Structures are given as structure tokens and as C-alpha cells.
Amino acid sequence: MVALDQLEELFDEQDVSAAVHDRLVRLRDWAASERVVCVGTLRADYHAHFQRLAGKLDLHFQPVPIAPFPRQSLERVISGPAEVAALEVEPELLGRLLQDASADSLPLLAFALREVYERGDRLTLSEDIYKDLGGLDGAAAKVADRVLASHGLDAAGHAQFLETLVRLVRVNDNDEPFDDRCSSPRSPRS
Predict the structure, then answer these.
(1) Which is nearest to 1 in space by CA: 30, 43, 44?
(2) Number of C-beta neighbours around residue 159 at 10 A
(3) How many CB atoms lie under 10 A from the CB of residue 48?
(4) 72 neighbors 101 (Cβ within 8 angstroms)
(5) Which among 77, 9, 11, 64 is positioned nearest to 38, based on CA atoms?
(6) Euclidean distance between the first and final Cα of the chain, in Å?
(7) Which residues of 162-188 are buried (b: 16+ CB within 10 A; e: fewer)?
(8) pTM greater than 0.90 (yes/no)
């Protein structure tokens, strides 16, 4: 079995380069001759592009849609790894995390939990530390502020940095973020 994660990364402006095309053809031929199964992940918004590519390259694929992460699984996402690491999660923290988190905030949840762990006694995940961090959003903001401060940026440098970050984010007509790929590097001002 060959695992291919984030197949959408193959696409550059809804098409693939000649080099990627050639690699996919070689992978297809190898899989056919060696009885290899390729399993890949692909964001739903790239499914149509991949279907077109599969048609062009005679790739045989079977889509397996994965449902959104169920909110009722959040408790296990928090407590399961803590149990494996022999960490205690204060019940108050667990309740607060379940209130604050959603299926869409898993990266923030992981980040906040790591910060709570690193700032604590490394035995107990504490609600007090989580509160001190400012919750899910506050944890990332505090670390970002600390990193910016460590680089000694003045107000103008800080503003330029934030402007650059904002320029990296693209939204569609529904104000949803999407990837804006480019085939060559570009500066933030281009």
C-alpha cells in the first residue's frame, strides 16, 4: 500500500505540471503491475479536478467520503491521549474545552493543550493555566505575541508583519478560506 496525503497539493491552478503528470503515470503503471494499492486523501473542493485528471490518465479510483469530525468525539480526543501519557485532565478544563472547541478547531485545541502541558507541572492539565492563556484563541495569540516580541519589531514592523499575514489568506464569495496556489514564489507585495 502507498499512502498519498493531501493530493490537492499536486494541483497548480487546477491542473498538474508535466513532472507531476509523469510521476502519476509511473505510479499508476507500478500499481497495476505490482498489485499495489494507493490510498490518498483529497479535500472535497478538489474532487472534480481529480476526477478530470483520473479520466485523462486512466486512473481507477474509488472515492470514500469521510464525514465531518463528530463533535461528540471531542471528549475522547482530549482524554485519550492524556490517558496514554498518564496525564490528569482537570474535569473543569475538560468541560471548558468541550464548550470552547469544535470539530473545526482541532489544530487550535492541540496547540492550546500543548501550551497548557508545557506551562504546567507536566502531570495535570489545569483549567487555571488554560484561563491564563486566554482559551483556544488566546493561546495562539499569546505565543504569536511572544514570538513577535522576541524579534524586536517596532510598531511599523509589527504592522507590516500583520499586513503580510492577512495578504496570505484568501477567501471565496462565502468568506471561507481557500488555497491560492502559485507556480512560482512571489513576494508578499506582488
Answers:
(1) 30
(2) 11
(3) 10
(4) no
(5) 64
(6) 42
(7) eeeeeeeeeeeeeeeeeeeeeeeeeee
(8) no
Mind listing the pLDDT tens digit for each residue in 8-34?
887 765 567 788 788 888 888 888 877
Does pLDDT of 182 surpass 60? no
CA dist., res. 51 & res. 71, Å (int): 30
CA distance 133 to 143: 9
- Name residues whose C-beta falls within 8 Å of residue 109's C-beta, 6 or more positions apart in sequence: 74, 77, 78, 97, 101, 136
Residue in the block written with cell 487546477: 14
Report the distance separating Cα 21 and Cα 134, nearest Å.
47
Question: Any idea what DSSP says for residue 137?
Answer: H
The percent of residues in the chain predicted with pLDDT above 90, rounded, is 31
Q: How far apart are alpha carbons 99 and 95 in whole angstroms?
A: 6
Element (H, E) at 124: strand 124-125
